[in-house]
Design goal:
Largest sheet: 2 strands, antiparallel
Shape: flat
Order of helices and strands: HHEEHHEEEEHHHHHHEE
Distance between the termini: 75 Å
Strand content: 5-15%
Helix content: 40-55%
Structural class: mainly alpha
Length: 302
C-alpha cells in the first residue's frame, strides 16, 4: 500500500509540474517553487509563561512579554506613547523628538548619484550635490568592496546573468520531482534561457573565450543534472544537446547577431549605422555575388 501511494503521489506531482510548465506563466512557476521550498508559516496560537499558564489573548501575551523584558533590563523605563490599552506598559527608553533629529544628523549622507571617471589620465576630481560628496560606484565581490573600473566591459553584467540563471536552475531542481526530461527542458527554455539571452546583441562576449565558457557552463551543468535526475546514461555535452533538441548558447547568440544585422540592412530599426558598417557594392561581377555586401568604415591596425 505504501508503494502504491508513493507511486500515485509521484504521478500527481508530475501532472502538476507539467501543467505549470505548459502554462508558461512565470508567476505560477515561482509561486509553486516558493511553496515547495519555504517553511510553513505557522504561528503559535498560544504561549506559556513562566508559571505554566496558557495565554491566548493578545493583551495577556503583551503583559507577559513586558514582564519578561522588565526582568532582563537593569534600568527599565516606561515609554510615554499612546497605547490602545492604558494599563499596558512597555520597557522602552524615553526618546524625545530632539534625540531623533540628532540621530538622523549623525547618519552619513547617502545619495543615489555616483561619479564615473573615464580615461586612464583622468584627474579624478571630486564633486558634490547639496554638500553631499559623490562617490565612485562600488561592487561587493567575495566579501571585498572594490571600485568598478569603467572600461566598457560587460564582465560584471555577465556574472550577474550567470548567477541569476544558476539560482533559477537550482530552484527548479529542488522543487520538481518529475523524471521526465521534457518537463525540465520546457522549464529551462521558458524561465532560464531568456535570462541568458536577453539583449545579447549588446553584451555578446565574442572577444572573450573565458566569458563564453562561463555562459556555456550554465547550460552544460543543467543538461548534466537533467540526465542525472532522469536516470539517463551519461553522454558528452553535444550528444545531450542533440537529445534535448537544443543548440549551444554561443550558436544562438551568433544567430541573434545575424538577425539583428539583417534587420539593420533592411532599415527595420531607426538606427544610424554609418559609423558601424557601409554597404559595399560589387566592383566586379561574381558568380555568388549579392547586393548586401558590407564593409567596415574603420579597420584598426594590426
Amino acid at each position: 500500500m505504501h508503494n502504491r501511494f508513493k507511486s500515485a503521489l509521484n504521478r500527481f506531482h508530475c501532472y502538476i509540474e507539467s501543467k505549470i510548465v505548459a502554462s508558461s506563466n512565470s508567476k505560477s512557476f515561482y509561486q509553486f517553487c516558493s511553496g515547495k521550498l519555504s517553511s510553513p508559516k505557522l504561528t503559535p496560537s498560544a504561549i506559556i509563561d513562566n508559571s505554566g499558564t496558557t495565554l491566548l489573548t493578545n493583551d495577556d501575551k503583551s503583559v507577559a512579554f513586558s514582564q519578561f523584558f522588565s526582568s532582563v533590563f537593569s534600568h527599565p523605563m516606561n515609554c510615554p506613547l499612546p497605547l490602545l490599552t492604558p494599563s499596558l506598559t512597555f520597557d522602552l527608553p524615553t526618546i524625545s523628538h530632539l534625540d531623533i533629529l540628532c540621530a538622523f544628523r549623525s547618519l552619513s549622507p547617502k545619495t543615489k548619484c555616483h561619479i564615473v571617471h573615464f580615461g586612464l589620465h583622468n584627474p579624478r576630481k571630486s564633486y558634490c550635490i547639496n554638500g553631499v560628496l559623490l562617490n565612485e560606484p562600488t561592487v561587493k565581490e567575495k566579501n571585498v568592496t572594490k571600485v568598478i573600473v569603467q572600461n566598457l566591459s560587460f564582465s560584471y553584467h555577465i556574472q550577474k546573468i550567470v548567477a541569476k540563471a544558476r539560482s533559477k536552475i537550482n530552484l527548479m531542481f529542488k522543487s520538481f520531482h518529475s523524471k521526465c526530461p521534457t518537463i525540465y527542458k520546457k522549464a529551462y527554455t521558458t524561465f532560464v534561457l531568456p535570462t541568458l539571452e536577453y539583449c545579447s546583441v549588446i553584451w555578446n562576449p565574442s572577444h572573450s573565450v573565458e566569458l563564453t565558457k562561463e555562459l556555456e557552463k550554465v547550460q552544460r551543468d543543467f543538461s548534466r543534472r537533467l540526465y542525472s535526475r532522469c536516470v539517463l546514461p551519461h553522454v558528452p555535452y553535444f550528444e545531450r544537446m542533440q537529445f534535448l533538441e537544443l543548440t549551444t548558447l554561443e550558436s544562438r547568440r551568433t544567430v541573434t547577431d545575424i538577425v539583428f544585422l539583417h534587420s539593420i540592412l533592411h532599415s527595420r530599426y531607426l538606427l544610424d549605422f554609418s559609423s558601424l558598417l557601409i554597404p559595399a557594392p560589387l566592383t566586379r561581377p561574381l558568380r555568388n555575388g549579392h547586393p548586401l555586401r558590407i564593409t567596415l568604415p574603420f579597420i584598426p591596425p594590426k
